Each structure stands twice: as structure tokens, then as C-alpha cells.
């Protein structure tokens, strides 16, 4: 064993799987159609690590279309001393090619369906059958950046408002962040009262940091993982019942799908869900609780910050769960939050500004210098801190509409639109305007088969909003363009706006 590999096993993220106390025959990965024990997963990891060869300090990419393969590759990469790079197989061929060429991995791990998408000149390992690997192209000699022993994962930001950017996360930062969240959830207790950990149902792809982080979080707890490579409301409800789950994670778009799916009558004994990947509007949290009797706990984090940095404790949930529904919680230990105005001055409690966060889990070396000031990361999100220290997310700075010098926060308008009985969901974005610079337009998904009248919706908005916040037009859609984790792609809506039949600027 090399010194690099030994260090990873002793103190790195590979230890979350390799050095756990659970017996080898303990089921650790579940899927709809089967399970895998801890011993079988470790054996698969060791086989793949051997096939990767000499990759210490080099990127190893996985073209992710299968959760078990992705998890196996992640741990095998660390065992071999490499840096793990998940690439989402749902990207276009051009996007996959661009990410692989930019990363310059020593080798790409893929299934048979994805192998042909890997550019020539890059090493390739193909899983022809579970645990059986073929090597059409050997790992290539290192040509790009060599990474340090503590560097673990290269993740890309979502890129919803621009080109995605690579962020390098460290073993120490990710591990400390996960341990901080676990300690906060347990109220500082080292163990959970001796009870065996409940399985963690992960309905997001392992190509996303939310999926990989929650897998590591589960293994650190000693909890098995239930994987869903693609979210389906009926499958989700069935898995909740099969494993008698009391809590899981869900993205906001997944909650909306569950609410609206008539096939899902209940969610068994589920008591609460933790919202991940995007801020959850309070009205959607209320709808979910009313439909299923399940409480929703929001949380907040960014890839750049190393994961979750703001969240709820059990005691906060008992005391504030109902009164602060929609807040993302309070800062984790050693995390600091500032809310600043456009002049970078701190604003009073309950006043909206841009969120700046200092996190010990961030990897500042890979962040643009203008995003870090005095150790605080400029998140690009709008929010407010209330008197009790709870953080409320109000939107994105880049989404804010400047209507002739008057600022419109789209999420505020969307929340009012969702209160209309004929509206299932809504999105508001700014479109260019020759006189005012930009003006707000609303895209609405109707609740039924009949579209509401545009004039009626605008009149409804004027009852609660000042005039400049009311959109100049409404467009109706069957659904919104979204990222894989459910974030609406506002830029695509703006690009589709025809500019006709506006109600007036």
C-alpha cells in the first residue's frame, strides 16, 4: 500500500466505507430491485482500484448513469490515491466531451451505454457486467494538474446562470462538514442512543453533489443507502413504505411532483423531509405538509462552501418548526453569516441583502478572488437573518429584475401567484425593455385544464403587490425547463418570450 493510499484510509473519506465497524454481511446499498452488502461493495471497490492502476494525484472520472457504479468508482478512486470527478451522463455529448477534456482525467469509468461518448486519447474502463471490467484504452500518462493528497473531489457548479465551474473539495473539508452536521443533528452526542441508523433514501443522482454528499453522510452514520437513479413519485412512496422510513431528503421539484400525483395517496410513517438542492418556498412547504402531514426542514449550502452550512436541529424543530416554516435554519458551528447591501454594509435583522458566508469547509483556492472578502464567500443569493438567527432565502442576485431602477425579486411575485387557485406553479423573470431596461414577465403552469385569464391574474397580483412588481405579461406553459435537480432555467424562458400581447409596461 502506498503512503498516499494509507493516508486516505487513515484519515480520508475512504475510511467512511473501508474502516467501518459493521459486519461484512450488513446490507449497505439498496435499490428497487436488490441490495449489496458492505463486504460486497468493499470487494468491488478494491477490484476497481486495482484496475485503475497508478492514478495517485490524478483525476479519475465516472460517466454517471448508475448509482452503484458511481459509488464504487468514488471509493476506488480514493483507495488508489486519485481525485474523483463525477460527470452526469444526462448532459449532451458536447457537454460531456467539454468537461472530460477540461478535466484531463487519467481514466474514465463508464457503463457499456456510455463508453462511446468518451473522447479518444483518454483512458477508459468499461463495466461490461457487475464487477467485470474491460479496458479498451489504458490510463494515459498525466498531462494536467497534479493534485495533493487532501484533494478528494472535483465538482462542477450547477451553471444555471452561466457556465459551470469546477470546484475542488478536500477530504478534510468534506469530512469535517459532515461531522459538524451529524453533531448538530444529535445535539452534540457522539452516538444516536444505540439505535441502528435508519436507511437514507437518496432520490437524487450520484452525479450531483447532493447525491454523493448524502451517500458519504449516510456511511459516516453507519446508515445504509437506498438509491434512486431517476425520481418517480410512485417508486419513492413505495420505497418509503418498504423501509419504514421516518425521514428522507427531497428536492423542491420532487415535492411538487408528489403533491400533484394522484397515484400517491400517502407517504406511510414519514415524519419529515429535508429539502435539498434549492431553496424551498414556504408556500410549497405548507402544501406538502397539508397533503401528506409531513413536516419539511429546509437547509442551505453550496458546492463552493463544501456542502451544507445552515440547517435545523431537533430542538429548533420542536421550538420553531411551525412558526419558521420555510427558513433554512441556523448556521452550523464555526459558520458565520453576513447579510450585506450593495455597498457591502451589514443590514439590520429581517432586512434583505446578499448572503456572505465564512465556512471552514470551503476550498478557497479554487474560488475567484472577487468572491472572497475577509474569508467570507459571496454566495450570490439574497436572504435575511431574523432576530433568532434563522436564515431565509429570498432569491438570487442574478435573478433580481431592475425595472427602471426599481428592484423586483421574482420569488416574491411567484409566491403570490401560487396562492391563486388556478395556478399550480409560476416563474417570474426579467425580459429586455427599450424604455425601462427590463420588465417582469410571469410564466404560469395552470392547476387545471382551463387557463385562467391573464387580466384576472394581474388583478390578483395588484391586490398584494405594488404596481412596479406586477408583471407586464403572462405566458402559460405545460412545464418549466429545469436542471436535473429541479431548478427552473429562467434564461430559457426569457429566450422564448415573444414580446407580443403585453399587458402594458
From TrEMBL:
Keyword Transcription regulation: no
Domain annotation AMP-binding enzyme C-terminal: ranges: 412-487
Residues spanning the signal sequence: none
Record's keyword annotation contains Iron: no
Source species, domain of life: Bacteria
Gene3D superfamilies found in the cross-reference section: 3.30.300.30, N-terminal domain of ligase-like
Domain AMP-dependent synthetase/ligase intervals: 25-360
InterPro entries, A to Z: AMP-bd_C, AMP-bd_C_sf, AMP-binding_CS, AMP-dep_synth/lig_dom, ANL_N_sf
Keywords in alphabetical order: Ligase
PANTHER family in the cross-refs: ACYL-COA SYNTHETASE, MEDIUM-CHAIN ACYL-COA LIGASE ACSF2, MITOCHONDRIAL
Protein family per UniProt: Belongs to the ATP-dependent AMP-binding enzyme family.
Protein name, as recorded: Class I adenylate-forming enzyme family protein
Taxonomic source organism: Actinomadura rugatobispora
